[in-house]
Write a structure and sequence with these properties.
The complex is a heterodimer of chains A (about 525) and B (about 400).
Chain A: H1 3-13, H2 19-25, H3 29-57, H4 68-103, H5 111-119, H6 121-136, H7 154-157, H8 160-189, H9 202-233, H10 247-281, H11 288-302, H12 317-329, H13 331-345, H14 354-376, H15 379-385, H16 389-419, H17 425-452, H18 466-495
Chain B: H1 2-18, H2 34-67, H3 85-105, H4 107-118, E1 126-133, E2 136-141, E3 150-153, H5 159-162, E4 180-183, E5 188-194, E6 199-203, E7 208-212, E8 218-222, E9 228-234, E10 246-252, H6 254-274, H7 281-295, H8 297-300, H9 318-321, H10 336-342, H11 356-368, H12 380-387
Parallel strand pairs in B: 1-5, 4-10
Antiparallel strand pairs in B: 1-2, 2-3, 5-8, 6-7, 6-9, 9-10
Helix pairs in contact in B: 2-4, 7-11, 11-12
Classes of the chains: A mainly alpha (about 525), B alpha+beta (about 400).
Chain lengths: ~525, ~400
């Protein structure tokens, strides 16, 4: 079967608009995937610039560059942008590009919905950041200044930035739910003949569970922020004790979404990292079934452990114990995954191209994030870690190393397939090493800051925290600047470079590697058959 | 790659030299309560276990990375899952070890810690109430000799140090005017609440940390075993002053504590008496300046210009220039006194925080300084009457 000729033939009859209109009206999964990935990359730099502002202010004690109010705005918007506008769209971008390719489908099941899903994002990002600009013209007092968690009563007290952020979260949520519906429908209906669920690529499995988690939890978040909105403007008292409400109830609702959100961000990555390991170890993936069951177990556990995010809020002892032990239980399926990842590498024939470097570095750094998470589950110790820099370091190990560096592994892995050109391998390796080293130098000091007693979200700090903050800031700038290599490498790969073969990597397995690089506009016009 | 290796080596040397610093703190600060001691033990144990797991797994990975390379001509095997009973057994062993660590080695001590931490009442010898408000702590002693003692604890680090115009003191950002005073060795039950938004009272050396929720009472306890001054901070984001509401606790011997209680009681009696006498405008202005700069200037600024639109200017504002009292002698709604006593939106209610004299003084100051010259004077007695 020659897919390329069939596809080429097809395209002659099926023209699509060119120029800007191509991107506005496109229903093509690859175009939409590209837009998602580009948007994520742009927002990664927007969110990164914000945090570099924060790090610059924290370079030494005293107030130098940023006043405390603006500081609070930057931390919250940084988090919302990185989570909702960088990590999630990047994962959705991969889903759009790769799921049809991996399951042998011509496109996603619901292409128009797909187009909507993407075009809701830019307005949401604008809503989120617009209050910064409005404040310059004297309208309102800037963006959301409550941290990304919106905790009332501070968020009830806040200015218009909170309202903008609430609507932004609504739009981002709608976009995620639409994307999730599309992925579920695609995976259940459009797999190639012979591809049973238990033969589905791991990436598709990761996304399937993520999609279910999104549909289960986003409505709760939407409900919670809507209640906040009515508390702010319409006289309700959901979170106000004076009217019979409870501020802590918001935390329960928020983290019922917020904890699964962590896995929503990570599950797609747990999907494709084993595929990368398998490719560069030239050896089949180890424990496919065990991994699938573990992904389900983590997905299920993630919705019943939320309260460990606020142990210090005060809870009855049985509740504390339940949330502690259930959180610790997550380490079991996660350990199975780690075991399978390492066993996939074990006795393979490994080579270390950039995607593999990122994947291996990812296992190690995400491991640190996971182990510190296990310690955080302990209620007594958590009283000390909670809201300190220890937690900041912990979740950056899971979300920067475990999230962003995972995405980077995926980018280098699939970029040749997407563009048809090989990226610059030397630059890729430089990018990996600079990122890994500066990342650790940024966040290891923060573990020690947290232990020594530095709370998070403070614009200025006591003198004993000065040295570690200084190291962290210098390293954070190195980390930020290293990402310019990433962009340069991607752009030059899009523009040209060595031609990529269909298979790209020697050990690559799976349907996406049977198509030419780049794949034809409509992926599989003849359905492949999986044996 | 050679360059990278050199950079890496440099970093190792750099980090090693850092550890030579004695000031560095690599772990929790010295614990001074049973709870903090327990937390430190739990933390150390967990860290050692985690570190051991991490290093073992890392070692296996690194061995594999170096041994099973294509460049060394290593031929891949093709196993996909454990196939023999023996293999399955070996696969289950790490799982069993983790189960043991999670729910026995870590789980059982964790259970006891939780129970100890939540037992706020048994053997508690005294009760205090801590109220968090933007951006200061308020302490109240609820029983024993000290019953009725109540004061506000404000940051004393001055503005010049914050803005780098003056050298920063040793306890920069961790110093207050009125520290909480506790007797050593006594178990103190702490009732925690807040008046506006969420706060979290935290002293790292005590190991206790509890959210202060407006409208609710939460509990925790401390039992300081060693005399000394202990410093901490609010650790729940509570607005722009979040970084500026430190906690300072003086733990003293029982005798010193009793002396302090007697002195504090006398001081409060004097202040209450002050509310009944007639004050001169100059005295009110002098006292008002102190109160204003300590409590109000964070938002309304020392000059009274405020930070609009969130924090309005007091200079020339309607509230601070319009009449306070109506024809019947009662204060008018939305008048200056009403606003200070009861607050509105972001403006906190001060009636529980400041005493009659302080409120009278600060209103008088705001109306006759900061570019205002209304000319009238509010007497403490009027504030006292207004509270009823």
């Amino acid at each position: 079967m020659s897919t390329s000729t069939v596809a080429g033939h097809h395209e002659e009859h099926h023209d699509h608009p060119t120029g800007l209109m191509r991107w506005f009206t496109t229903t093509n999964h690859k175009d939409i995937g590209t837009m998602y990935l580009t948007f994520a990359l742009v927002m990664f730099f927007v969110g990164g610039a914000m945090i570099l502002g924060i790090r610059a202010e924290l370079f030494k004690p005293g107030l130098q560059l940023i006043n405390p109010d603006f500081f609070n705005q930057l931390i919250g918007v940084h988090a919302l942008i990185m989570i909702f506008a960088a990590l999630m769209p990047a994962a959705t971008g991969f889903a759009n590009w790769m799921i049809p390719l991996q399951i042998g489908a011509p496109d996603m099941a619901l292409p128009r919905l797909n187009n909507w899903g993407f075009w809701i994002l830019p307005p949401a990002a604008i809503l989120l950041t617009l209050p910064f600009t409005l404040a310059l013209f004297g309208i309102g007092d800037g963006a959301l200044a409550t941290g990304w968690t919106f905790y009332p009563p501070l968020s009830v007290q806040g200015g218009i930035g909170v309202d903008f952020a609430i609507f932004a979260v609504h739009l981002l949520g709608i976009s995620s739910v639409l994307g999730s519906i599309n992925i579920i429908v695609t995976l259940f209906n459009m797999r190639a003949p012979g591809m049973t669920l238990m033969k589905m690529p791991m990436f598709a499995w990761g996304w399937l569970i993520t999609a279910f988690l999104l549909i289960a939890t986003i409505p709760v978040l939407a409900g919670a922020v809507t209640m906040l909105l009515t508390d702010r403007h319409f006289g309700t008292h959901f979170f106000d004790a004076a009217g019979g409400g409870d501020p802590v109830m918001f935390q329960h609702l928020f983290w019922f979404f917020g904890h699964p959100e962590v896995y929503i961000l990570l599950l797609p990555i747990w999907g494709f990292i084993p595929q990368i390991l398998q490719t560069f170890s030239r050896k089949p993936m180890y424990g496919y079934k065990a991994q699938v069951y573990s992904l389900w177990a983590i997905g299920a556990l993630s919705v019943v452990v939320w309260a460990h995010h606020f142990f210090t809020a005060g809870m009855p002892v049985p509740a504390l114990l339940y949330f502690m032990y259930s959180t610790m239980a997550i380490s079991l399926p996660l350990a199975v995954l780690f075991f399978c990842w390492i066993k996939t590498m074990w006795r393979g024939s490994m080579s270390f191209e950039t995607p593999m470097l990122f994947a291996v570095g990812w296992i190690i750094l995400f491991g640190i994030g996971g182990l510190t998470g296990l310690v955080l589950a302990d209620v007594a110790a958590d009283a000390q870690y909670h809201n300190s820099y220890f937690v900041v370091a912990h979740f950056h190990y899971t979300l920067f190393a475990g999230g962003i560096m995972g995405i980077m592994a995926g980018v280098y892995y699939w970029l040749p397939k997407m563009t048809g050109h090989m990226y610059n391998e030397t630059l890729g390796k430089w990018h990996f090493w600079l990122t890994a080293i500066s990342f650790n130098l940024t966040f290891i000091p923060q573990f020690f800051l947290g232990l020594a007693g530095m709370p998070r979200r403070i614009p200025d700090y006591a003198l004993q925290f000065a040295e570690f903050n200084m190291i962290s800031t210098v390293a954070a700038f190195a980390l930020g600047l290293s990402q310019l290599l990433f962009v340069y490498n991607i752009i030059s790969c899009i523009k040209g470079g060595k031609k990529a073969t269909d298979k790209v990597w020697e050990g690559a397995e799976g349907l996406e590697w049977t198509l030419p690089s780049p794949p034809p506009y409509h992926s599989f016009t003849d359905q492949p058959v999986v044996k | 790659m050679q360059v990278l290796k050199r950079i890496g080596l440099g970093l190792v040397v750099f980090l090693a030299s850092l550890s030579a610093y004695a000031d560095y703190s690599w772990n929790f600060p010295e614990p001074v309560t049973p709870m903090a001691l327990d937390t430190l033990h739990v933390h150390n144990k967990f860290m050692l276990i985690s570190m051991a797991i991490f290093l073992v797994v890392l070692a296996i990975m690194i061995y594999s990375i170096f041994a099973h390379r294509k460049s060394k001509g290593y031929k891949p095997v093709t196993d996909k899952a454990p196939s023999t009973a023996l293999e399955i057994f070996w696969t289950l062993i790490p799982f069993a070890i983790l189960l043991l660590i999670d729910f026995v080695i870590m789980g059982i001590p964790a259970y006891h810690s939780v129970v100890m931490m939540e037992d706020t009442r048994n053997k508690a010898n005294m009760v205090i109430k801590i109220t968090g408000s933007q951006w200061r702590w308020q302490y109240e002693y609820l029983d024993g000799d000290a019953q009725g003692i109540k004061f506000v604890s404000n940051l004393t680090t001055n503005d010049k140090q914050l803005h780098n115009q003056e050298e920063k003191g040793e306890n920069y950002l961790l110093e207050v005017d009125n520290p909480l005073v506790l007797p050593v060795g006594e178990k103190v039950r702490i009732l925690m609440t807040a008046s506006d938004v969420l706060h979290n009272w935290w002293v790292p050396q005590f190991g206790s940390s509890r959210l202060a929720v407006p409208g609710f009472i939460r509990e925790t306890w401390v039992q300081v075993e060693k005399p000394g001054t202990y410093r901490g901070q609010c650790k729940e984001l509570c607005g722009k002053g979040h970084g500026y509401m430190p906690v300072v606790v003086n733990a003293v011997s029982m005798e010193e504590y009793k002396t302090w209680v007697a002195a504090k009681k006398e001081e409060q009696a004097k202040a209450a008496a002050g509310a009944d006498k007639e004050w001169t405008k100059d005295d009110l202005m002098a006292e008002g300046k102190v109160v204003y700069e300590k409590n109000c200037a964070v938002c309304h600024q020392v000059s009274g210009a405020g930070l609009p639109p969130a924090f309005p200017a007091l200079t020339g504002s309607k509230v601070s220039t319009s009449p306070i009292f109506g024809a019947d002698g009662k204060y008018l709604p939305d008048s200056h006194l009403d606003r200070v006593l009861n607050g509105k939106n972001v403006m906190p209610a001060w009636k529980a925080t400041l005493n009659d004299t302080e409120i009278a003084a600060v209103i008088t100051y705001e109306r006759n300084a900061l570019g205002n010259s209304v000319g009238d004077v509010v007497q403490p007695a009027q504030v006292k009457a207004a509270r009823q």
